[in-house]
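Tutorial, part two.
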Amino acid sequence: MTWAARRPLAYDTLVHQFVRELLAQRTARPYGPDSLTTFYLGTTLFEQAPDQHSARCPTCNSPNLSGHLLVHLVAQHALTPADTVFMRQQLRGAAEVRLTPGLLPGYEVVPLDTLWALDRRLGRRRRLEAARILEERYHTADFFWISVPLFPRDRQTVIVDISYDCGGLCGAGTSYVLRRQNNRWRIMQQMQRWVS
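Running the prediction step on this input gives:
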């Protein structure tokens, strides 16, 4: 008997559907009119986590689950223990998921190959020069990354990270727990993960 190749539980179409929904709720300013249902996102997105090209970071494309986040969500009855198992299974395929430009019309998607080429040419120590090259090529200094979303079985809650890099030592990353209400994603919890 042969087993089929492992596929992530959050398939590309589900991920892109979620990303399109999130982008429909975006604001171009860090603090939108409704901070519980708007998200600061630009129109230039990284295909995957910028650090994904590093062999040292195989889970960079998934949300940050540190600090016992899933345990807290079970204690708050936002998730069941079975949901947490289902979500952890999705982590196994997170590195394989990439944003596809054709599925996100109106948005520029920066390929991972571009980041690899800059790393090979400039080295990681020349980050400011790499940021300048990206800014010239994509006509923006603001680049955003949305992690692979982790869903429970009912897909009404999601854990996702949203990060942005605005050149040099400028940027931030936040983990969100969102709940679908009235056909919109609403913030239940948010945790600032990093800021520069």
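Residues 9 and 89 are 7 Å apart (CA to CA). In part three we will examine how such features are distributed along the chain.
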